[in-house]
Amino acid sequence: MADIVLDRVSKIYPNGVPAVREVSLDIKDGEFMIFLGPSGCGKSTTLRMIAGLESISAGQLSIGGERMNDVDPADRNIAIVFQNYALYPHMSVAGNLGFGLQLRHVPKAEIDRRIKDIATMLGITELLSRKPAQLSGGQRQRVALGRALVRDPKAFLLDEPLSNLDAKLRASMRTELIKLHQKLGTTIVHVTHDQVEAMTMGQRICIMKDGEIVQVGAPMEVYRNPANTFVAGFLASPPMNLVSGRLEHDQAGLAAVAGTARFVLPPALRDGYAAQSGNAVTLGLRPEDFHLSRGNVKLSQAVPVATVATEVLGPEVILVCELGGNGGPEVMVRCPRDFSASPGQPLTLHYDLSQIHLFDKTTGKVLSRPSLI
C-alpha cells in the first residue's frame, strides 16, 4: 500500500520565500504520476518533501495512510533516483546495487539474489564488475534505477533521471520505464520539464507553476481541456497557438476574430459563448487542427495565411505562417512530410472549428463551452 497524499503542503524558506504553496494531491497506490512544469515551479521541492529531504513548513504528508511529516527519510521505504545518478565512484556496479541492503543488514545471500534478479531485469548483468566511470550515461542511469529497485520500496521518486541522456537514448529509456512500471505496479512519481515524457509516460499529469498546482488529469484529458493559457502553451510540442483576439457578432453570427482572420463559431459554441460577445479573448488553435484541404472536417473554416518559414522534421513539416495574411499573428501548423512552401507564399488552410479554445484575456482561464459530441 503506497498511496501518497499531500494535504495543503507548503515549503517556505527561512528568508520567507515560498517554494511550494498549499499543494493538495492524492497519488493513488501503483499510479505513475508526472510532475510537469518549468524550472523553479516547485516540482522537485515537492518531490523532495515526499522523500523527506526537505522539511514541510505547513500541511500534512501521508504515505500508505501514515503521517510522514517528521519521519526520517531512511524510514519511509521510498527510493529516489536523481538527475546525476549519484553513484559511488569507488564501488563496482554490484557494490552500488547492494550497498543500501548492506546498511540494512540484509543477509549476503539475499543481497546476491536481489542483485542478480535486478541486473537481469535491467540488462546490466555484464556490467556488475565495472566502475561507474567505465559506463555510458544510459548504463549509469540503469544502475541508478537498479539501486532503487533492489530495495523493493513502497514507491519510486524520479527527479529528471532522463535529462542527461541524448534524444535517442532518452526515448528508449522512456519505454523501459513504462515497461518497468507495468511489470512492478509500484507507485512512481516522476519529475520532468519535458512535455513528451509527460504525455507518453504518466497515467496522470500534475502541472505546476509558481509553487502551485495548475491542473491535474490524464494526459489526453489535460491536452484536450487545458484549464488556462499556461497549460495550453506548455503542454505538447509544438504547443497550442495562443492568439489575441475578440468575440464579435456579424451577419454570419458570432465570430472569434484575430487580426483579419475570422472564425465563425458553430451554433453549439455560439450559444455557449454568446455572453462573451464584444470581449477580448485569447484564441487557442492547436497546430494539428489546421488542414491543407477541407477533407472530412465537418466544421471547417477556410483561413488565409502567408508563409513565414517551414521546419522540416522528417515525419512532418512545421509551417510557420501569419494568420489572415501578411502582418497577421504568427502561428505554427503541422503539415505532411511532403509539404513545401516558399516564404511569403499565400495559402488557404482549413481549421477544424470543433477544436477551438477560447480563454479569458485578463485571467487566462479557459471559457467554458458546451460539448459538440
Key descriptive features of the protein:
20 strands; 5-stranded antiparallel β-sheet; 373 residues; 6-stranded mixed β-sheet; 34% strand; 9 helices; elongated; alpha+beta
Structural description of this entry:
The protein has 373 residues and is of the alpha+beta class. The chain is 25% helix and 34% strand. The chain has helices at residues 43-51, 93-103, 108-122, 137-149, 167-184, 195-201, 219-224, 229-234, 267-273, and strands at residues 4-12, 18-27, 32-36, 58-63, 66-67, 78-81, 155-159, 187-192, 204-209, 212-217, 241-250, 253-258, 261-264, 280-285, 290-291, 300-312, 316-323, 330-336, 346-352, 357-360. Helix 2 packs across helix 3, helix 2 runs parallel beside helix 4 (137-149) and helix 3 (108-122) crosses helix 4. The radius of gyration is 25 Å and the shape is elongated. The model has no long low-confidence stretch (mean pLDDT 91).
Helix-strand string: EEEHEEEHHHEHEHEEHHEEEHEEEEEEE
Category from helices, strands and their pairing: alpha+beta
Mean pLDDT: 91
Helix content: 10-25%
Radius of gyration (Å): 25 Å
Distance between the termini: 39 Å
User: Which regions are unreliable across 5 or more consecutive residues at pLDDT < 50?
Assistant: none
- Largest sheet, order of strands side by side? 6-7-8-3-9-10
Major sheet, described briefly? 6 strands, mixed
How big a fraction of the residues is strand?
A: 25-35%
> What is the global morphology?
elongated
Individual helix count: 9
Number of strands: 20
